[in-house]
Amino acid sequence: MLRIGVMVSGGGTNLQSIMDNIDSGAITGAEIAVVISNNPGAYALERARNHGIEAVCISPKSFSDREAFNETLLEKVNEYHLDLIVLAGFLVRIPPKMIEKYRNRIINIHPSLIPSFCGVGCYGLKVHEAALKRGVKVTGATVHFVDEGMDSGPIILQKAVEVKPGDTPEILQRRVMEEAEWKILPKAIQMIADGEI
Ligand code: GRF
């Protein structure tokens, strides 16, 4: 059984899609051991608890400096003996020590077709604003391994999504989630559970 830790900062719809896929049997051989958030108000924590999954918050605001936060975060992650860490809308930079220790065992979902609309400062709605501003006709989502860079690790899966006339960043964000993110993130987890990657 692949033990997964899901790291979140917000609403947790991607977390929900993973839980739903496990429940329906679309993902087999994997279980969520813990959900970790940096944000105490993240609805994702509630989604996890409603599902009987352990949910933990470690807020950087409770620490005197980033180093102390990073150490506690890594200690917490280590406690769960995870095989895979899934960043599902986690808005905190992963500490270098964690990347080193869990190399090729941390994956992230990004709401664009990398290498477009990614990198430092390009997250959340900003990604879709940038895509609309540039006038692309196709966008999408990417699941990739996490390395020391920002959105620069090896790509696992991508799925394209059409941009439609009249799209706002919010409408496009929702379509990218529904048509791409909620599909390719569970699929990537299944591929890893099956040893295909
Ligand atoms: C998603 O768009 C994801 O691609 C990005 O952050 C958002 C998280 O949404 N990294 P949710 O919390 O899973 O609803």
TrEMBL record:
EC code(s) of this entry: 2.1.2.2
Domain Formyl transferase N-terminal, first and last residues per copy: 3-189
GO terms of biological process kind: 'de novo' IMP biosynthetic process
Class of the enzyme per the UniProt entry, highest EC level: transferase
GO MF: phosphoribosylglycinamide formyltransferase activity
Record: residues binding N(1)-(5-phospho-beta-D-ribosyl)glycinamide: G12, T13, N14
GO cellular component terms given for this protein: cytoplasm
Binding site for (6R)-10-formyltetrahydrofolate: R66, N108
Pathway participation: Purine metabolism; IMP biosynthesis via de novo pathway; N(2)-formyl-N(1)-(5-phospho-D-ribosyl)glycinamide from N(1)-(5-phospho-D-ribosyl)glycinamide (10-formyl THF route): step 1/1
Active site residues of this protein: H110 (proton donor)
Catalytic activity field: N(1)-(5-phospho-beta-D-ribosyl)glycinamide + (6R)-10-formyltetrahydrofolate = N(2)-formyl-N(1)-(5-phospho-beta-D-ribosyl)glycinamide + (6S)-5,6,7,8-tetrahydrofolate + H(+)
Residues the record marks as site: Raises pKa of active site His: D151
SUPFAM superfamilies, per the entry: Formyltransferase (SSF53328)
UniProt entry keywords in alphabetical sequence: Purine biosynthesis, Transferase
UniProt-listed PANTHER family: PHOSPHORIBOSYLGLYCINAMIDE FORMYLTRANSFERASE (PTHR43369)
Annotated function: Catalyzes the transfer of a formyl group from 10-formyltetrahydrofolate to 5-phospho-ribosyl-glycinamide (GAR), producing 5-phospho-ribosyl-N-formylglycinamide (FGAR) and tetrahydrofolate.
NCBIfam families according to UniProt: PurN (TIGR00639)
Recorded family membership: Belongs to the GART family.
Record-given protein name: Phosphoribosylglycinamide formyltransferase
Lineage, uppermost ranks: Bacteria, Bacillati, Bacillota, Clostridia, Lachnospirales
